[in-house]
Every structure is written in C-alpha cells, then in structure tokens.
UniProtKB/TrEMBL annotation:
It comes from Amycolatopsis xylanica. This is Glyoxalase-like domain-containing protein. Pfam families: Glyoxalase_6. Transmembrane segments: none annotated. It comes from the Bacteria. Residues 6-110, 126-214 form the Glyoxalase-like domain.
Length: 215
C-alpha cells in the first residue's frame, strides 16, 4: 500500500488549500490539491463538507524550527495567513506553540532542539491520537518501519524520509462522528483487510475506527 494523500474535510476547500500552500510553501496540483516541495512524500487534498467541526482532530501537523527566531517567524507567517492561537490544555512551561488553521484544524510549531524530530524537515510529524495496535497496523500496511515503540506510543517513518507519523497511546479523545482528516491510499484493498481493517459503506476503518479510503 502507498499513502497517496492526507485529506481534510473543509467548508471552503480552496481557501484552506491556499492557507496550507502558503504556510508549507507547497505547490498547487489543482485548486484543492497540494504537492510537496520537500520529502514529505504525500499530497494534501481538501474535500468539501457541510458538517461543522465539533471536536479536536485526531491528527495534527508538528512543524519544526531551527531556532527561536525561526519558530517566531513561522508563527507570525501562520497568523498572517489566517491562523489563530488556541488552548488545547498545553502547559505554560511547554515551548511549542499551538495554532489552528482558518477552519479550526490544530497544528503545532515545535520549539528548536527537539531531538525526536531532529532528522525531519519542516513538516516534522503527523501526530495522531491512537493506540499501539494502530501504529503496528499502519507500519505493516504502508511498509514503513517503526522508529519508536515505547510506553504504548509508536511512530513510523517512510524509508525515503519525510515526516514521522506518531500515535500517542492512551488516553484517547472520544471519537464522535467522522474524522475531519483521513488517509487516502493506493494499492490492494484485500491487503488492509487482511491486516485488520474493517470495510464500511464509504471505505475502510483502521483498528481504532479511523476512516481511510483507497483510490
């Protein structure tokens, strides 16, 4: 299986694509699809929805910084593009900055000197709510090796580099309704079913119940 895209449900897909293109410096494949200009290895797609955002997302980007000034520049750029500061329970002593995009999708600008993301680019990680089991599932499904597996927390990374995908282990945020972010894969659907995915009316779900599609 191959991870083709990370898809965002969006009230205004073109506007949200413009925000992320400006922040990440990615290029437009079409009005609602962005292609990376780095080693990220997958697209961003923005799909229309009429459903409002009602809870914290199960996935968010961690963007890296090379210095405190670099972190401040990224935050300022994001705010200029339409982001805002949000409080998701982060502690005052924590040095990362938590923001949301114009539709409320959370992301973090990580402080310089973060050893876990030291080998990653600007898009350091896609941080996910999820179990150890789901980390193992995605490692097998994508053929990406585990680069972290401790205390029920897992992380995988493509052999070709790019961001890590991490799962933080319990406790989990309660899932109500469909996720606003989901993976789009290419490959043989029978393979993910063999690994433990469930088939639904709209695609598939992983062992934690997170939706994904296969194009």
């Amino acid at each position: 299986m191959k991870l083709r895209a990370l898809c965002f449900a969006a009230a205004d897909p073109a506007r949200l694509a413009r925000f992320w293109a400006g922040l990440l410096n990615w290029t437009f494949q079409d009005d609602v699809t962005l292609a990376p200009t780095d080693d990220t290895g997958f697209l961003l797609r923005f799909l229309p929805t009429d459903e409002p955002k009602t809870r914290q997302n199960q996935m968010h980007f961690d963007l890296t910084s090379t210095s405190l000034e670099d972190q401040q520049r990224t935050v300022a750029k994001a705010l200029d593009l339409g982001a805002r500061h949000i409080d998701i329970g982060q502690l005052p002593e924590e040095e990362h900055v938590v923001l949301s995009d114009p539709e409320g999708n959370e992301f973090c600008v990580i402080e310089p000197g973060n050893n876990f993301l030291a080998e990653c680019g600007f898009v350091g990680a896609l941080a996910c709510d999820g179990s150890q089991e789901v980390g193992y599932f995605w490692s097998k499904a994508l053929g990406w090796p585990l680069v972290w597996d401790q205390d029920q927390e897992t992380a995988i990374r493509s052999p070709h580099g790019g961001p890590k995908i991490t799962w933080g282990g319990p406790p989990f945020t309660a899932k109500t309704g469909r996720n606003r972010l989901h993976f789009e894969l290419t490959g043989d659907p029978a393979e993910v079913v063999r690994l433990g995915a469930a088939v639904t009316d709209t695609g598939f779900t992983d062992p934690d119940g997170n939706e994904f599609t296969i194009g």
